[in-house]
Structures are given as structure tokens and as C-alpha cells.
Amino acid sequence: MNKLAVISAFLGGVKNRYIQYKPDRTLEEKFAVAAQIERLDGLEVCYPADFGDVGLLKKLLADHGFGVSAVNVRSRRTGRWLKGAFSSPNADERAEVVDDFKRAMDLAAEIGAPRLTTCPLNDGHDYVFEMNYLDAYRYAEETFAAICEHNRDFRICIEYKWNDPRTRCLLASAGETAAFCQAVGADNLGVTLDIGHALLVGERPAQSVALLHRTGRLFYVHLNDNDRHWDWDMLPGAFHLWEFVEFLYYLKEVGYTDDWYAYDVMSKEFDTVETFSVVTHLTRKLEALADRIDRRQMAAMMAERNPVRAIRYLYDTVLS
Question: Which CATH superfamily is domain 3-317 in?
Fold first, then answer.
């Protein structure tokens, strides 16, 4: 069974571009909140925010018995790398990014994290004729290749997203990101599949699981939900119950069963502990729904390509 983690940033100062819903919290305060969340096994900690005192971070993890699902390296920084991190046209900036990721990788290994994950949100463009796409891909490939070379035994995960803060991010879909990883050619470079980002870009998330598995790039999973119009970071299954059931069904089918799920869910004005306790509860409920499906029967129905029978089976079995 996959373990459950929360991205630490969602335990602190929760805000959007208009409202700050929760106060900023210290690292100790975020751990105190996490300790009250039911069924939580660990955290996805953020670099550099959570690494001001590495000794304290290690102590808090040990005191609370928490594992680390990943280290989330924030590649967008206020006042730095404003034209992109990995794809910056400035070679000195790209070198800074590589050095920063090497340091993050070493610290991640020190605290027992199995991987780094990063979402290149500011690598992209807003307007036509703004970016030289050929150069941008080449620069990004070279940057990630240098990062991966630092420790071939450590996994680096790219979390793709369609937009925000750019109107179009450089790596927006499962297919684009898998192709990019193949172009880089590093075996330790893969993908963080955020189901909300898959929904936002118009994917069928279970199909994305299959694609990334087939290319050997399915490294990590984030859970949340949205309305496909914006990345709202909502409760899993709140909008897309059947897509979640199929998603979890395929994750088990491809063997993603002894790893981690991490949550980026926005609690907004609601109680943080209650919100994430419901999130973990819903995850186990959704897994139980997916497990009601008889895999042999479903395989036979899919082989027939008769969705009428399959949908009736789902309603009669999963919702019985």
C-alpha cells in the first residue's frame, strides 16, 4: 500500500493571488499540524524553505516518526531566474540552477528522501515570438542532464503543468515530459504525475499512467482534484470520481503499489488538520472502490471494447 504525505508548503501560509487564508508558520509549527493529521505517514518537504536548519529538520522528522516522500525543489524564486530556470537564456543562471539542485540532492539523500521533484512553472512563455523554443529545449535538456549526472542513483522528477505563472509552460503534458526525458537520456530522470495537472491539460489520467509506465518514467504521484478549468487543488474525487477510480486501478496494474502519494490540496479558510484528514480518508475510500473491480472481468470487457457493459458493471459493482 502506498504511503501518504502532504507537501509541507500547504501546512503553512496558505494563500492565492488575492487572499492569505492561513498565517505563515515555522517549521516546528508545520510539523505540529502534520502530527494531528490522521493516517499521515510523512511529508514532501520543500527546498530551500524547509532547509534553513537541516539538523532541526532531521530532528523533527525523527521525533514525529515521519518519512520523506520527496524533496520539492522550488525552481521559481522571487528576484531570480525570472526568464526561466532550466531554460534560461543566461548560461550563468543555468549554472546556478545546476549547483542549487546538486546541493538539494545531497541534502535530500542526507534526510533519507528517495527523490527530488520539481515543477518548472516559470520555464515557459506568455506571448508568441517571446521564446526561442529550439534554444529553450536545448538549454533545459543540458541543465537536467547536468543535474542527473551528479548522482545517477538518485531520481529526479519533473512535474508537468499546462500554465501558471506562464500562460504556457514548456513541459505541459505527460507526453511532452516523457519525450523530454527521452531526449535528455538519463535513466534517473522521470515524471511526477499530478492528477490535477493531468486533468487540467485534458488528459485521461489513467492513460497518462500507462504512457509514463510504458516509457519507464512514472516516478511519483500527486493527488488532488479540479474542474479542468484551473488548478484548484481540491479534495481527491470531489469532481472526478470515476477518473480517480480508473487512475488508481491503473496505478495498481502497473505496480505503483509500494511508494508514496503526496497531496497538494488547498485548505483555504477550512481547518488544515480536518481538510487533510478527510483527504487521507478519501484516498483509502477511493482505493477500496477501485479494488472492487474484478480485474479478469474488466480485462474481458475492455477486450470487447463495449463500454456499455463496463459502465453498468462499474455502477453495479463499485457503487453497490
Answer: Divalent-metal-dependent TIM barrel enzymes (3.20.20.150)
